[in-house]
Amino acid sequence: DVKVTQSSRYLVKRTGEKVFLECVQDMDHENMFWYRQDPGLGLRLIYFSYDVKMKEKGDIPEGYSVSREKKERFSLILESASTNQTSMYLCASSLALGAYGYTFGSGTRLTVV
Amino acid sequence: QKEVEQNSGPLSVPEGAIASLNCTYSDRGSQSFFWYRQYSGKSPELIMSIYSNGDKEDGRFTAQLNKASQYVSLLIRDSQPSDSATYLCAVNPYFGNEKLTFGTGTRLTIIP
């Protein structure tokens, strides 16, 4: 089974801090994604990467950046954390959408105080 | 208009009955459709995918797709308390696109 690992399950950061969320997948998937999930708003795409060093903005990229230096690792960076970035962050990967959809990591619950 | 719409629920179904979850989508050219189950505090897990009009069955789960009417549904037969979760509908808007658009989910509760 594909495993998508997010480095932290819970994280508490202060306003203005630079925050790094790490995601690693072990099945050589080309595509990796960062979503945030908020009650009533569902899953919203922040950034997407379809190859090493390639990235594409999603629906809500403001305040975020990403890095993909190696195929297996996709990092989400909050340049200056704000309270409205308190959320559940979900990383996902896919080989190709096909019949497989995405495989999600276990999520990082980030609280910005 | 939201691209993928689901009734947020909660939907309550007695144990052993059929649970019916519905999803509509706005992009007529959408190619592939997925149902994810998400337990409280956990991440979504894929339970069904469907691409062609009609029904697709996997155990107690049946996905139904009607592209002309732009809806996809998920039926859960012989509902169990362990089926209590939020069910997310996801749609791939067009061929070659690797990004899914998710609905906000329907919360399902199975009553023992």
Task: Label the overall shape of chain B.
Answer: globular
Q: Give the strand tally of chain B.
A: 11
Largest sheet of chain B: 6 strands, mixed
Helicity of chain B, as a percent range: under 10%
Task: State which percent range the strand residues of chain B make up.
Answer: over 45%
The number of distinct β-strands of chain A equals 11
Termini separation of chain A comes to: 36 Å
Q: Sheet bearing the most strands of chain A, described? A: 7 strands, mixed
Radius of gyration of chain B: 13 Å
Q: Which whole number gives the mean pLDDT of chain B? A: 92
Average residue-wise pLDDT of chain A: 92
Largest interface: A-B, 25 and 21 residues
Question: Could you please describe the fold and organization of this structure?
Answer:
The complex is a heterodimer of chains A (113) and B (112). Chain A is mostly beta strands and 113 residues long. Chain A is 4% helix and 57% strand. Chain A contains 1 helix and 11 strands; from the N terminus they run βββββββββαββ. In chain A, strands 2, 4, 5, 6, 9, 10 and 11 form a 7-stranded mixed beta sheet that branches. The model of chain A has no long low-confidence stretch (mean pLDDT 92). The radius of gyration of chain B is 13 Å and the shape is globular. Chain B is mainly β and 112 residues long. In chain B, strands 2, 4, 5, 9, 10 and 11 form a 6-stranded mixed beta sheet that branches. In chain B, strands 1-3-8-7-6 form a 5-stranded antiparallel beta sheet, with no helix packed on it. Chain B has strands at residues 4-6, 11-14, 19-25, 32-38, 45-50, 54-58, 61-66, 71-76, 85-92, 101-102, 106-111. Chains A and B meet through strand 4, strand 5, helix 1 and strand 10 of A and strand 4, strand 5 and strand 9 of B.
